[in-house]
Amino acid sequence: MIKPLAILLLPAAILTAGDIREEVLVSVNNHFISRRTLAQSVEQETAALYRKHSGKELDEKLRDTREKTLQNLIDFFLLEDKATDLNITIGEEDMRGMVENLKKQNQFTTDADLDRALRTSLGVGINDFLKRARQNEIQRQVMSREVFSKIAIEDQELRAWYEDHKDEYKQPSRFRIRELVLAKGATPEEKAAAKTKLDEIQAALKSGKTFEELVRSHSTSPSKSVGGDLGWINKGLLRGDIEAAALALKPDQVSTPVETDKDICLVQLIASEINAVKPFEDVKQQIMEKLQEPKAQNAIEHFMSGLRSRGNIRYLVPKEQILKG
After folding, report:
1. Would the pLDDT of 138 be above 80?
2. For the chain, which residues make up each domain, given as ranges?
3. Distance separating alpha carbons of residues 155 and 165, to the nearest angstrom
4. DSSP state letters, 43-91
5. Is the predicted pLDDT of residue 8 greater than 80, yes or no?
6. What is the pTM of this model?
7. Which fold is adopted by the domain 174-273?
8. Running DSSP on this structure, what letter comes out for residue 184?
């Protein structure tokens, strides 16, 4: 979208900014919807529908995609201006925080890893995803303040819904361990030396040495530099016998030796979250909005009708022509 301050509105409804020329279809207050913007939005929405639906359901969804997408673009600008009136802002710091949370939740190291995952699962890159996320958050905050806040839901009703739908708030089972790895070696002498080293380590543990200290001193794994800490691991991703040994432990306990073809492993459980459910307080607002929404349909439509009637919406190309493409 070309920034309004960098454009000149011409009689032929063409936006000019430098060498870029775009046909403007609709103006919404001080915002402009160009043919290219609408086409890109329709393309993205269509791709999303193909990923979610098929058959007759898909045909029905596609029938009015262009009209709904156009209305959504108009409504977004109306809501964005309302957010400005309400001093609601979603800044770069907020969006950066969203990126970091997504990376943390999905165990991605870099933005590029997240970008690839988004393109695979949603068909959009990180920039387009964040643009949509920002739009959604603006709409959510405006609706929350102007509509949902006026619909009361008792705390008892929220808690009852949470108890009945806990399965919806389950988190992936995961655990966090430290590993101490000893190479078994190939010759009988090397294997005997590894066994002697293992005995020494176990004796040191009994004498009060910390597992992390012993890892840093004796482990042959690259993880020794971080005290053997492998971070949070989703259940089912680690070698079966090592995972089973880890999950049989209580926090801070150390397993009996687990032997692989080449190594001897000791693991210490740091923490585990098995079949954990998000706490009520963490999802209370989400449940509030879910329960408010059915009660708010008329209020939402009334609120949006008011924004549309008060907004300065001008079709610079007849709407019928826009919808024909």
Report:
1. yes
2. 89-146, 174-273
3. 15
4. HHHHHHHHHH--HHHHHHHHHTHHHHHHHHHHHHHHHHHHHHHTT----
5. no
6. 0.52
7. Chitinase A; domain 3 (3.10.50)
8. -
Cα gap 41→25, rounded to integer Å: 14
The runs of H, that is alpha helices, within 107-182 are: 111-121, 126-146, 155-164
Q: What is the mean pLDDT of residues 5-13?
A: 33
Q: Say which residues have a Cβ less than 8 Å from residue 264's Cβ, sequence separation at least 6.
A: 181, 182, 184, 194, 198, 257, 258
Query: 256: buried, middle or exposed (CB in 10 Å: 19+, 13-18, 0-12)?
Result: exposed
What single-letter amino acid sits at 171? Q
Mean pLDDT throughout 262-268?
93
CA-based end-to-end distance of the chain: 19
Averaged pLDDT score across all residues of the chain: 86
Q: What is the DSSP track for 198-224?
A: HHHHHHHHHTT--HHHHHHHH--SGGG
Alpha carbons 325 and 67: distance in angstroms, whole number: 10
User: Which of 228, 185, 192, 194 is CA-nearest to residue 210?
Assistant: 228
CB atoms within 10 A of CB 93: 8
Burial of 74 (0-12, 13-18, 19+ CB in 10 A): buried
Buried b (16+ CB within 10 A) or exposed e, 36-48: ebbeebbebbbee
| Residue whose tokens read 């459910």 | 277
